[in-house]
Structures are given as C-alpha cells and as structure tokens.
Amino acid sequence: MLPLAAYTARDWSRLRPLTLAYRTAARTRQMRRYQAVPPTDAAAYEAACTKLDGQPLAISVAFNQPWVIDWQQRFVKRNLHDLAYAVADNSSIPARAAEIAQICAERDVPYVRLPANPGTSASRSHTLALNWVYERVVKPLAPDVFAFLDHDLFPVEPVAPSRDLDGQPFYGRLVEQPMGWSLWAGYCIYNRAAIADYDLDFSQCWYRNLASGGANYERLYRHFDRSTLRFARSWYQEVPIADAPPGGLLERHDGWLHMIDASGHGGSKADRRTGMERLLTAIEADPQGVATWPASSRPFRTAPAAPGRR
Question: How does pLDDT run across 129-185, given as a tens digit for each residue?
Fold first, then answer.
C-alpha cells in the first residue's frame, strides 16, 4: 500500500485507503488459493518438470491463440540460445488449449496446462497464471535464471537473456509510473539466487498504476537502486513491407518483436493475424532484413497504454 501521507483529502473522503487495502487483501487471498490448485494433468506436469529440471528457463504464457505459439516456437528454435523454453497454457477455450498442446507435442516443447482460472479480466487472469507458474514450476525447479514471456513476443534476432542479466538481479522492459516502477511481465528475466529472499507477486498494483508484475515494486524492485541497473532497449518499429498488420506500430525490445494484443483482449476489432503472419513469414525468409528496419520517431512509452492491458 501507499504511505498514508500519500493519500489526498479527496482519497480519504472516498475511503480510498480502506477500499484499496480491502481489494489488495482479497486479491492476495484469491492468488494464494489459486496457487494451491494442482495441475490439470499431473502426469504431463511431472513430465514437463522432469524435462526442464536443472536448466535456465523461459516460460511463455499462452492464451487461446495456437497460431501465435506456433510462430513463437519457430523463432525460439532459431534465435533463443541460452534458456530452455516451455509453454504454460492459460487458455480459456478447451479446443484452443488442445491445439496448443498438440503444437508443443509435435515439437517436443514442455507443456503445462494451467487449472481453470478465476480471473474475471484478461489482466487478472494473466497475473494469476504468472503466480501459479512461479509457485508450481519455478520454485520447485529452482533454475539459476528464469524468464516470463508474452506469447506474442518473438525473438526475431539472436537473443541470450541470461547474458543480458550480466550480474544484475533482474532485467527486462522498464515500466515507470510516478508512484513506482516495475518490469513488464511479458519480458522479464531474473537471477533466482539474487531474488530468492523476496516473496514475489506478479499481480497488478493499481494504486501505483502498475499493470501485471507491478506488485513486485513493493516486494522486490524498491529495494534496488534503479539508477544502477540496465533495462531493455525498447522502441516502436516501423514495418516497411506491404500488408503490414493493422492496429498501430509494433514494439521492439532488444532482439524481440512484440505484436501487442494478439489475444484480442484489448478490444481491437482488427484482424491482425493475416498481416502479422505475412510479416513473420518475411522475417523468417530474410532474418537479416529486420535489422535494417527503421525505428519510429514516436517516443516509446514506458507505461501501459490503458488500465487492463497486460
């Protein structure tokens, strides 16, 4: 929670400190209850953990878009060089989850189906998924390095996230707000030994206006001097090819391309799949070409665009 002195007279007149304290406690209880739910398929869960044991780990949280996971895995196989890769499936549509499971089986990618998620919004569902994976996969396996990836984040150039840490406790895309900062939960890497004494929570922190992962400001990030840390280089990417996907510019974070809102939870009505698949096909055919694409002149924002975005 915020220090009491940070609340205005208007906040107190609306009982905001009390309502925020109640909401925080309620959501923490929900998160702990969800973490206690066992895996949907115990045998598949054990097989995935056995395959991943002893390796630094990147975990992608899937949600209802098999084609997105398909493309991510194609680029991961080519360009992700230093982390084992796994899929944690938070899909709400069983048929889509079955497709994602099949894609993973065909490529021998470790796959964990998450239990039914009680989150009533896309952002809340995502944070519950992250916390379940952290409790049920990361903690038991205790990898030296672990990373969380959005399913619509593609390594279009060779990447080595564990080397990006370079002695830091964590690394990723910086998200800044006036009342705090965090790493974007779609691209964040951690040195497990360096953060082992902190009780992480990948929930939102709405009273600091921080989206998924923002609760770790209180639990982790505020204990470190931000001025001494490096973060991902992030910019908007112009797409100088025909039939570019609609819906605005794409994001770049180091060697990763972020599609933005592949699941459609952000309310975009545009069909982005056709254009995005053309784009990814072009990159796959000419992997060196993406390095020559111009960055947009539009300044990159370090905070989420709107409440509810993951």
Answer: 999 999 999 999 999 999 999 999 999 999 999 999 999 999 999 999 988 999 999
Give me the number of domains the chain comprises: 3
User: 53 and 144, same structural domain?
Assistant: yes
What's the CATH code of the domain at 107?
3.90.550
Domain that holds residue 288: 234-292
User: Which ranges of the chain would DSSP assign to H, the alpha helix?
Assistant: 9-13, 16-35, 42-52, 66-79, 94-106, 122-133, 139-141, 161-165, 192-195, 216-219, 273-285
Q: How many beta carbons lie within 10 A of that of residue 295, not counting itself?
A: 12
Residue 179, C-beta contacts closer than 8 angstroms, at least 6 positions apart: 2, 6, 207, 208, 209
For residue 307, tell me if it sits in a domain. Answer: no
Angle between helices 16-35 and 122-133 (to 10 degrees): 50
Residue 269 scores a pLDDT above 60? no
Helix, strand or coil, per DSSP, at residue 205: strand
Instruction: Return the residue matching tokens 């929930």.
Output: 203
Q: What is the pLDDT of residues 5-48, one digit of tens each?
A: 655 667 666 666 667 776 777 888 888 999 999 999 999 999 99
Query: Is residue 308 over pLDDT 50?
Result: no
Q: In the block, which residue shows the tokens 């694409």?
A: 293
The identity of residue 236, as a single letter, is Y
- Residue 16: what are its φ and ψ, rounded to 5°? -60, -40
